[in-house]
Amino acid sequence: MREDQQQNQQLDQLQYQRYLPTDLRINVAWPGLSGCLKPDPGVICQGFNGTALQFRSVQAFDVGEKLILDIDLADIQLSELTATVTSSHQVSEGQWSTAVNFCFINKLMRAPSIRCNLLQIADRLRSSADFSTHITERLQRR
Fold first, then answer.
1. Which of 44, 46, 65, 134 is at 20 to 30 A from 26, Cα to Cα?
2. Has residue 12 been placed in a domain?
């Protein structure tokens, strides 16, 4: 009986779209007029948890630097999210890994829809990770 339930759950999971952090599109800008003059550094998401995210880019960022982020995952689009750089370190020649925290002190960031959408994104990305971990564990048992 337990095995049947697991198989049904796996079939249910296969019906829903799975997302990876790299499916999350992120555009980075800087606040103010100077931000309009700097090009988007072209970042790739490495991790996301609803209150922070980590990305890779060809540009180093300064700890404490303020950023404006637009993020998009399938049907969820969020614009002009404020974030602060918490770490940035070089991972290889010309590649930097940067972590940012969303600035919920900002009044616009406290909107319930913002938090809800950030949590939905985190849940979709976590579901993908949980599913791939489950498949990997199952394959290793064989």
1. 134
2. no
